[in-house]
Amino acid sequence: MSGIKKRAKRLACRLGLDANPLRRRTDKIATCLAAQLLLVCLVGAPLLGMAAFGAWNFTRLPIDAVPDITNVGIVTESHSRAGNGRPVW
């Protein structure tokens, strides 16, 4: 076999153009795994970046709106007929 035919045969094997169905199947599996890894990297990296940025901003968030939990009561005075003119507490 000449050198060009050997190179053409090796290239056909690498591209999955030969008649070996098992090689084509394993090449498809490898291609699918590579695509899934690429997808995980393209989606996962920005997602982790946004989560880290949100956590960092959460630590810098000023807490201004704190509810007043002191025990201060409001006293109102009203006169009613049932109270005989006395304030009702």
How would you portray this structure in words?
This protein has 89 residues and is an all-alpha fold. It contains two helices and no strands. It starts with a helix and ends in a 30-residue tail after the last helix. The relative contact order is 0.05. The model has no long low-confidence stretch (mean pLDDT 78).
How do you describe this structure in short?
The chain is mainly alpha-helical and 89 residues long. The protein has two helices and no strands.
Write the layout of secondary structure elements.
Elements: H1 3-15, H2 21-59
**Number of continuous helical runs:** 2
Which class do the helix and strand fractions yield?
A: mainly alpha
Q: How is the biggest beta sheet arranged?
A: none
Radius of gyration (Å): 38 Å
What share of the residues does DSSP label as strand, in percent? under 5%
Helix fraction bin = 55-70%
Helix-strand sequence = HH
Unreliable stretches covering 5 or more consecutive residues: none
Mean pLDDT: 78
The shape, in one word, is rod-shaped
Total strand segments: 0
- Report how far the terminal alpha carbons are from each other: 111 Å
Q: Key terms for this structure?
A:
mainly alpha; rod-shaped; single chain; 89 residues
